[in-house]
Design goal:
6 helices, about 0% strand, MetI-like fold, mainly alpha
Length: about 120
Amino acid sequence: MPIILALILNEIRCKWFKKVTQTLLYLPHFLSWVIIGALGYQLFSVKDGVINVLIKNMGGSPIPFLQEDVWWLISYILIGIWQSMGWGTMVYLAAITGVNSELYEAARMDGAGRWKQ
């Protein structure tokens, strides 16, 4: 996922949007697990969690993300991915931006599509 996200960020041409996106992606890396846990509780709480409120507003029944083993494991893994994804994305993005633009131009001349570049 960090590689795909780095490729997407590399395609963004609007400088201010790219910098804001990078900051928001990298910010969770600096937060402690206590803060991340509190955010997870606010998102996944059965009664007043943001996700369950959205589910209730769409006519569904709330999901006990933090009470049932399977849902808890899924939410724990997703929160862990969210917290650690920014670091890997920035490392891959630094490597991608270090590639000389002449190599992309040469690949285009050789008939390579955007994905192969």
